[in-house]
Write a structure and sequence with these properties.
The protein is an alpha/beta fold. It is built from 12 helices and 6 strands. The two termini are 35 Å apart.
């Protein structure tokens, strides 16, 4: 029954992998589903996915969609996961923007839940302000269209608080953030979009991470340019908890094997091996 399940969960020490998807992502994304399958079916762990606000058909309770890099929703989710499974080690995995969220949580959230044992970030850019200057028109447009689609879907909830037509007429991600994010988060006192991007960047903080933290990037990533990868290298030099893995190829969350893509990617193996090694090291302490 429910009481027995709750009692069993309270003493269960099986690792829990908490996944944070990329921009406008949720548990419906194929890379999330594949990775969760590897964690649960192949490794026997538990898994939880943090669906971003307003995504995957979920209704909004406020006019606020998810905010790029903000860690507060992750913090709320982890409190709930930790309360249900207080004896279980938690391992955080963030994909793309989700990696930024994970790194910000690990270095800026006070207090944190006590049972987070590791973190991993895949294909994030670390410095949002610098990255915004080198984002191509094509990928900027893709991101903008995703955000506009969410605004349209939640128009009724958002309309009383902001000029939705003005938001939807934005032609760049920067214009979208000026017309939507800065206005709805006016209490954060960002006067310019550059201040918002700088505040959401994990680059100034990541070297302070206090648990093993894996940072994965690919040199051929079309969204994250190589000049942004000085951040993980510098963080590794300053903090032995930071482990950097930079591959020549992999694209943005690709990492396919062979000429014919397989269900299981190199990334799935890298991340599950990472969690497994940290779990084994903890067991020997």
């Amino acid at each position: 029954d429910a009481a027995a399940d709750a009692a069993a969960a309270a003493v269960d020490t099986t690792p829990v992998v908490v996944v944070v998807p990329g921009i406008a992502g949720s548990s419906a994304q194929h890379y999330v589903r594949n990775f969760v399958h590897e964690c649960t079916h192949e490794r026997g762990w538990h898994a939880a996915v943090v669906n971003h606000r307003g995504c995957d058909g979920h209704e909004l309770d406020t006019p606020h969609l998810f905010m790029f890099g903000d860690w507060h929703d992750l913090a709320t989710a982890l409190v709930r996961v930790s309360a249900r499974r207080p004896a279980a080690p938690l391992h955080l995995i963030g994909f793309s923007m989700g990696g930024l969220v994970v790194c910000n949580y690990m270095t800026r959230c006070v207090p944190r839940v006590a049972n987070v044992r590791s973190a991993a970030s895949v294909c994030q850019g670390y410095d949002v302000e610098r990255g915004s200057h080198t984002l191509s028109t094509f990928y900027g447009t893709v991101m903008l269209l995703k955000m506009k689609s969410l605004v349209r879907r939640h128009r009724e909830r958002i309309t009383p608080h902001i000029d939705v037509d003005h938001v939807l007429s934005a032609t760049t991600p920067q214009e979208f953030d000026e017309r939507y994010t800065l206005r709805l988060y006016a209490h954060r006192n960002w006067s310019r979009v550059e201040e918002y991007y700088a505040d959401m960047s994990c680059a100034p903080h990541i070297a302070r991470v206090d648990v093993p933290c894996l940072l994965i990037n690919a040199l051929d990533d079309p969204l994250v340019k190589p000049h942004l990868l000085d951040v993980p290298l510098d963080s590794h030099r300053r903090n032995a908890n930071v482990v950097v893995l930079t591959l020549d190829r992999g694209g943005h969350l690709g990492f396919a094997r062979g000429l014919i893509p397989q269900h299981k990617t190199l990334l799935d193996d890298l991340l599950t091996d990472w969690v497994g090694e940290v779990a084994r090291a903890d067991a020997t302490e």
